[in-house]
Write a structure and sequence with these properties.
Layout lengths: L2 E5 L2 E3 L5 E8 L3 H4 L3 E7 L6 E6 L5 E3 L7 E6 L4 E6 L8 E9 L2 E4 L3 E5 L2
Parallel strand pairs: 2-11
Antiparallel strand pairs: 1-3, 3-8, 4-5, 4-9, 5-6, 7-8, 9-10, 9-11
């Protein structure tokens, strides 16, 4: 069973930066490499939305709301996907979730809170 653990969230002032990490366990690095991994975020009462994703061939996809401010990357040897977030805005405040998807296998982490506030 694949387990995903997010870390790196916290309180940051507007304009600041955070780097989130999503570490996988219960899976080899080789198998992890075939998964598409995405970062999603959710605020209460709103549907969870995709922030960024990275495919097994490292192609990336970004939501318009974060494009240019966020970079997703992966280290398959470490079984970890990173989300570098810069120029953070109050509207980026949310719980950020990591998702790993490959064919019928779909796994979620428990989430990490990001709060952007002065």
């Amino acid at each position: 069973q694949v387990q995903l653990v997010e870390s790196g969230g916290g309180l940051v002032q507007p304009g600041g930066s955070l780097r989130l990490s999503c570490a996988a366990s219960g899976i080899s690095g080789y198998v992890f490499s075939v998964y598409e991994v995405g970062w999603y975020r959710q605020v209460p009462g709103v549907q969870r939305e995709l922030v960024a994703s990275i495919a097994n061939d490292r192609r990336t996809n970004y939501a318009d709301s974060v494009n240019g401010r966020v970079t997703i990357s992966r280290d398959n040897a470490k079984k970890t996907v990173y989300l570098q977030m810069n120029s953070l805005k109050p509207e980026d405040t949310a719980v950020y979730y990591c998702n790993a998807l490959y064919r019928g296998n779909n796994f979620w982490g428990q989430g990490t809170q990001v709060t952007v506030s002065s």
